[in-house]
Amino acid sequence: MQDLAGRTAVVTGAAGGIGLALTERFIAAGMSVVMADMEEETLSREASRLESDGASVLGVLTDVRDSDQVEALRDQALSVFGAAHLVCNNAGVAPGGAMAETTPADWRWAVDVNVLGVAYGVTTFAPLFLEQGEGHIVNTASEAGLVTNPHLGLYCATKHAVVGMSESLWRETHEQGVGVSVLCPNLVDTKIFESERNRTDGAEMSANTAAIMAPLREAIGVMGIPTTTVADRVHDAVVNDEFWVLTHELTLPAATRRFEDLQAGRNPSDPYDGLISLD
Q1: Residue 126 is inside which H or E element, if any?
Q2: Active site residue 155
Q3: Among 6, 42, 97, 128, fewest CB within 10 Å belongs to which?
């Protein structure tokens, strides 16, 4: 997969944020891209824009919570472009709030998108890639898959699952010509903390959760890195066959703090103590 030109990528959550940046980066590398998203109007607009600029793209309305739709996504990629070589299981949501206040509906929503949506991408595309003896799978987790934070417990749980799933998959496939990468960014300038806009179960955000999410939305707008920076890192990871895709310098020392606590027999400490200045 060192040469991406002429190959086909499939990207979920492709109508905006990291997914759109990945789409544009792989187009720049000479790939055809199948763009999957559940925001129909935005997907149509972005796919049309890219196509008018000369890109080889296909927009496919897809809800990754439905395994049949993910399989149909694969089938459309094969039908239109004749092959698939790269899949970015990128669609995700970011619920916030105190763990004690989460509801079964909250868990179903987050797990269905963040865990099963990635799992369906894996079980749909990994057999194809193994059969053809080449391919690469990129699963979008988060720094929250390596580091835990208060008021993001549900999100952390799902992203820890993506990291574990991805590492096991790498161990199963890396000697068979199929690469695996896991993307673990910190704050990126996206609408991830507004993901309730796509929630279909009718549940509304509580006042307490809204109060918790407000500063997160402000922080991501102020401190979030550009999505293009993330897309460049993912592109390089695919070409260089790298598993860990980190985007922030503080991720590794923050993640290491857990193992330092384990070795010292300590209760969990603040992973960012001494790494972030509040001045």
Answers
A1: helix 117-132
A2: yes
A3: 6
At position 34, the amino acid (one-letter code) is V
Of 81, 109, 120, 155, the active-site residue reads 155
Q: Is the pTM of this model over 0.90?
A: yes
Determine contact, residues 193/218, Cβ cutoff 8 Å: no
Contacts of 122 (CB under 8 A, 6+ apart): 89, 137, 139, 165, 169
Pick the CATH number of 8-248 from 3.40.190.10, 3.40.50.720, 3.30.420.40, 3.40.30.10: 3.40.50.720
Compute mean pLDDT per 10 residues along the chain, 279 residues long, and list them. Answer: 94 98 98 97 98 98 98 98 98 92 94 98 98 97 96 96 98 97 96 83 80 82 93 98 97 96 97 73
CA distance 213 to 210: 5
Cα 256 from Cα 271, distance rounded (Å):
8
